[in-house]
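Hi R.,

Here are the chain sequences for the assembly we discussed:
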Amino acid sequence: MKLTKTLMASTALTVAAGAVLAQDMADSMTLVSWGGAYQRSQVNAYADPYKEMHPDLEVVWDESSAEAVAKLRAMDEAGNVTWDVVDVVAADALRLCDEGLAMEIDPEEHLAAAPDGTSAEDDFGDLLVGDCFIPQIVYSTTFGYRTDMVPDGVEPPSDICSVFDLETYPGKRSLEKRPINNMEWALLCDGVAKDEVYDVLATAEGQQQALDKLDTIKDEVIWWSAGADTPQLLADGEVFMGSTYNGRLFSVIEEQDQPVAMMWDAQVFDLDGWIIPANLPEDRLARALDFVYFATDTQRLADQAKWISYGPARQSSAPLVGEHAELGIKMAPHMPTDPENAQNTFLYNYEFWADYRDDIDAKFQAWLAQ
Amino acid sequence: MSDTTQSGPVLAADGTPLKKSLQKALRAQKLRALALVAPLLIFVLVTFIAPIADMLFRSVENQIVSRTLQNTVVALEDWDAEGGEAPGEAVYEALYWDMFLAAEAKEHTRLGTRLNYEQTGVSSLFRGTGRGVDDIGEDQIDALEDLNEAWEEESFWYELMTGGDGAAKDGSQLSAARERLSTLTTDSYRGNVGFEPGAEISALLPRTVSEYATFAVYTVFVEEDVVAEEEPWEAVKVALIEELKAGADLSGYSGPGAEELRAAQEMLADQPDIDYKAAFLKEDKDWGSIPVWQTIKTYSPPFTSGYFLNAVDLQKTVDGVEARPETQQIYIMLFQRTLFMSLVIMGSCILLGYPIAWILANLPVRTANLLLILVLLPFWTSLLVRTSAWKVMLQQQGVINDVLVWLGMVADESRLVMINNQFGTIVAMTHILLPFMILPMYSVMQTIPPTYLRAAKSLGATNWTAFWRVYFPQSVPGIGAGSILVFILAIGYYITPEIVGGTTGTFISNRIAYHISSSLNWGLAAALGSILLAAVLILYWAYDKIVGIDNVKLG
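And here is the predicted structure of the full complex:
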């Protein structure tokens, strides 16, 4: 009788203890990312080491980052958010924050300090855009060109304006089918000073000026909407030069050995990182925060660069960037943030595009359709 | 004879009138039929019709403005939008109360995003102001707190607002606060707040009590804190300052905090008034911009035609409906293009499909089945694979161009441009939709007896006459069915035009997809979708009038 009682009591205790632990952190977590090589780099650098520390955890990946904003909004309206940590570009993070769909982050509380004690806030610096965004990498949208299509006796293109120079560099170009970046490049090559680009672009005349400049090459442009398009067009020899994400060009050049070279001039920096959906249940939130704390520390961010040529968002990670895990080449010179590559750069202007995106996009699409 | 002369209704065997009994039997039959289809019917209603209706409803829904700016919208009613002057102080004061609460509840940026679709720059205007709105009235609040530290104490405020233990209570402000918050966030705020306003103070300082009650409800339900342990937010203090300055009559008041209130009133008399307009203009000069206010006023009703107007290249302004600037007109052109290209695709499907269907119908069954598999094979292949295959075929360094160059028919420098334009879309979509045309045609042609053609010929008709006068009319129902299928599928096609359409070959559905997934302008997407749906229904109706829907056969 006494034994049974003790047994029952201890069972109850164990169950209660288990319940408390389970309450603390959920044992499954849904991560949302972009698929492909990028997601693989995240699995290798973040998810696998984290799983080693928490063997009972089940990690589910969802490749929905491209539609994350719309899907998260739909989930929120349906009252059933199934995602725990979502990888988005900074512009989308800003929108999600504005819509109240992403949780606000306090860098001091939610993110790890650098090994030398620098606070997370200082370590990430200006890259902490918006209140909800946890930066992960710096990538850039830049141009690559086919080295075998450079005309004889002409220097290979090294200036952004060679994109608009059809005389010296005849051939097709591929540009993204949206105004962002294209309008800035057009103005830059139409004689607008770099620090005045957004002031000019804020006016109707400036927008027209950019479209007029783009008009000079419109017949020679193939417009892309997926990041894989330009690498494919370059590999097929369909275009002479084209814009895309620098990591995609890296894999065309280094992994697929195509006759393609980078033209880093006027590359546009953009950020990619995590957000945590607003109003998660407590146990899932605890899990998400724990994961993000781990996955954005100095070493983890540097590790990601072993698998993909995107720069870590922390200053303290930069010296730790080593060699590619499979190719064995030094990664630093392939980073958009490398001083050699970053001689002339732009930072995506989030506030500007949040305001002007709808207006300029309408004009841009109308211009495209003409 | 005797039967017909009998008066009264005809009776069934069991004595009930035959009519009734028949009706009963029929009703039972109908119910049984209904019960059988009920699962599917309910499934379709719940998973298909309801979401579509909900989505289409967004094309007119616009409650976010009046929900977020509850006071401002009312205050704006008196403002003359065409007068060329920014609104007066009263509107800015109303804006302060709305903006403060919206910023606390983080609803202001949603409204900013919504209004930014209509007026560029509103998004950052709201985002920026949301950050600075709690600084408004800062000098006066500081003066108040310098005068007596009690104004920073949560327990003092709680005592003041409840009127102390045992004082008479007045719950009306509290229910108004619940109402105000649930209008703003569309959540419900039922339950115990742990605070009830005192009746005396409610009568004396209604605005302050109202703000405090809102603060209390928010603290309890959103922040999940205890009211008595939290210092009220700035808007409560601003409300108090306003009311004391406006000369609230404290002479008869003897409840908690009477001393402090009198001292504060005396001190505040020397303080300048809070200038809301100047404060907002300091936050962002765009608050003085007339177009911003015009946009807010134009879009303040809970329902709007604005999305539909945008969807047909018009815009809503204070002067009424206007055409959009020419540089932004795109949707009418896209609708026209979508209709035109769908018709072309349908036409080319008929031209290509008819001979194939005819051959299939006239071959021996065994051979026909083999050929039918060839027709269906691409049908079973992924849409993306087929579209990408066309890319490889048609691009400038692609298979067709390579062959043409090799044959010497095209110079290497002037390879044909066959993709990323209308031509590419038409070719790829014709290929993809062809089975939808061939199959109904084939099944209709199978039912046409070959003897008719032979009879016509034996009566002296030429091959052409026999085909055109005898065979073709009988195959029209198949063409009709195929055409409707292909046209309706084509008009809503999205992925193929996106991949091979370039700039001149994209459809309206590509813009709808953009507004759903990128710009998040779901209202406009819903309006465009509704118009597309209406266009299809009208065309279907016209088809019924002209050809007759009875003439459509799937087999």
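The interface with chain A takes residues 106-107, 109-110, 112-113, 116-117, 120-124, 127, 327-330, 333-334, 395-397, 420, 498, 502-504, 506, 511, 516-521 of chain B (CB under 8 Å). The first strand of chain B starts at residue 314 and ends at 317.

Let me know if anything looks off.

Best,
T.
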